[in-house]
Write a structure and sequence with these properties.
The protein has about 200 residues and is an alpha+beta fold. The chain has helices at about 10-20, 45-50, 70-80, 90-115, 130-150, 165-175, 185, 190-200; strands spanning about 1-5, 30, 55-60, 65. It is globular and about 50 Å long. The mean pLDDT is about 95. Bound molecules: glutathione.
């Protein structure tokens, strides 16, 4: 199977870090797609990913998976250990709940801010909107404050153990630096969690 990856871009990094924690990075052939060079906009790549986004996973039978969480669900199924998406209905629901919140209330909001404010994104976000950027920034920063409170007494984001939700949040915190924002350095509980999650990701 082949994974289309853009190093440093947060959604692809969620998938490669998920695989890394599983110890299975070698199980996929990786092809790098440069978003900055707009390689994801070619007809050839659109044939893999109709929305021209990275990551994408193409299975050996030709099936195309083009949502990072769906790709992780597939990897969780074929590489069950260590479990990262929940072992029973309650854990699965809690982990999905937090991972979706991180995706919708942090990733999406941060992306709106970054794409509408950063000069490197100008060719991809036409036209950029200062109003949209301000809204995304406010929403992302508001969510992270709530998350910091959630982490009082919780070592990890969901179900009292390391999971895909921690991987998503860790990647988001690191990527926030492109807007000179380091939420884990501003908020104490998030900072302590960042150190714990970093240890798990380092193996
Ligand atoms: N919902 C998708 C989002 C994928 C996505 O937005 N990927 C970004 C990189 S982090 C991308 O391909 N951006 C290129 C563009 O928007 O032109 C997923 O989770 O995989």
């Amino acid at each position: 199977m082949k994974l289309y990856h853009s190093p440093k871009a947060p959604n692809p990094e969620r998938v490669t870090n998920f695989l890394k924690v599983k110890g299975k990075l070698d199980a996929v052939e990786i092809e790098e797609i440069s978003i900055m060079k707009q390689e994801h906009k070619t007809d050839e790549y659109r044939n893999v990913s109709p929305f021209a986004q990275v990551p994408a996973l193409v299975l050996d039978d030709g099936t195309k998976l083009t949502e990072s969480r769906a790709i992780c669900t597939y990897f969780e199924g074929i590489f069950p250990e260590p479990n990262l998406m929940g072992k029973d209905p309650k854990e699965k629901a809690l982990i999905e709940m937090w991972d979706r919140r991180i995706e919708l209330m942090l990733f999406m909001q941060f992306a709106t801010w970054f794409r509408n404010a950063h000069e490197a994104m100008a060719p991809l976000e036409v036209p950029q909107s200062a109003e949209a950027a301000a809204k995304g920034e406010k929403n992302a920063k508001g969510f992270v404050k709530k998350l910091d409170q959630h982490l009082v007494g919780n070592d990890f984001v969901a179900a009292n153990r390391f999971s895909i939700a921690d991987i998503s949040l860790f990647i988001a915190c690191g990527f926030a630096g492109v807007m000179k924002w380091q939420p884990h350095k501003e908020l104490d509980n998030l900072g302590a969690w960042y150190a714990r999650a970093g240890e798990k990701l380092a193996g």
